[in-house]
TrEMBL record:
Gene: mftR
Superkingdom field: Bacteria
Coiled coil start-end: none
Keywords: DNA-binding, Transcription, Transcription regulation
UniProt organism field: Microtetraspora glauca
This protein's name: Mycofactocin system transcriptional regulator
DNA-binding region: 37-56
The keyword Transcription regulation belongs to this UniProt entry's keyword annotation: yes
NCBIfam families to which the protein is assigned, alphabetical: mycofact_TetR
Amino acid sequence: MTSPSAHQRGRPPTTDHSAIEQAAFRLFGERGFEETTVDAIAEAAGIGRRTLFRYYPSKNDIPWGQFEAGLVRLHAHLAASPPDIPLYEAVHRAILDFNHLDEAAIPQHRQRMRLLLTTPALQAHSALKYAAWRNVIAEYVAGRCGTTADALLPRTIGHVSLALALSAYEQWLEEEDSSLPRLLDSSLSGLRRYLTRP
């Protein structure tokens, strides 16, 4: 995403998703999600309301960051998976890659996930995001199995994968010193057991 290159009436020379998120998360921490208005976020980010909406369609989308871009990467990772590796392994690797974090991003990601998993006002919106994520998994599984994404096995693997990942995230939020990759790896091993059971 390119940033504005010219100064506009006191606005910062650059605006991007990260700057808006940082301003929003600071306010969410101070005031709470529901009490923070779009106008307050725009003011804190030094931009206008209309500019904010060019980056995020709604306040509910801000905690999700660039989630849609992440789904594109998840799809690409799955599509590039070697066709001869087991199905569970391809899904496992893709989910680990999807959730990879640079060290510097960990504090804000903890705040992001705590907000997403514990804020009642976000649950309906989150359900749409989770459905889109599950569908990427289901479409890949369907392609491997020669069926459709809404068939029982692809649908089930999508739901199971999401549940396993969310369980790892909940544990990660409860244990400040825990490793997210290690928790995800351990939790996702359950998918292997599910797919390889007699």
